Amino acid sequence: MRYRIEVSIARKGFVQVHFPGRLIALEASRHEGLVWQVEVTDDGGGYRGLVSVHAENAADAAWRVAQATVRAVSGLMQAPLDPEPTDSSNHLARG
Asked: Which distant-in-sequence residues (6+ apart) come within 8 Å of 82 by Cβ?
């Protein structure tokens, strides 16, 4: 399964997860201590929700939810993940 994770440099705690034909946006903005609320928006399906995650900061919270999103979609689609690219020149995308 192909995917791409884009981490915003300008908006701390904002990440987009791209799958073929689908975009999932994640934004961590509220927290109490180390518990962050990450808003999940599935543009392709019109779904919205919140996920709670323990993290040091907004960027870490969004990154953790992005990784979990990729694993969840892979499991639901019963599609193995493609290996990570070895090209390190693109620091905005992983996966």
From this structure: 1, 2, 3
Task: Give the type of residue at 66.
Answer: A
- Note the pLDDT tens digit of each residue in 20-71: 888 999 999 899 999 999 999 998 778 899 999 999 999 999 999 999 999 9
Contact 54, 35 (CB under 8 A): yes
Q: φ and ψ at 61, to 5 degrees?
A: -60, -50
**The length of the chain, given as a count of residues:** 95
User: pTM of the prediction?
Assistant: 0.80
Whether 93 is covered by a domain: the verdict is no
CA distance readout (Å), 92 to 14, 18, 26, 54, 83: 12, 13, 15, 23, 17
Q: Is residue 18 domain-resident? A: yes
Domain range for 34 is: 4-85
Query: Per-residue confidence at 83, pLDDT binned at 50, 70, 90?
Result: low
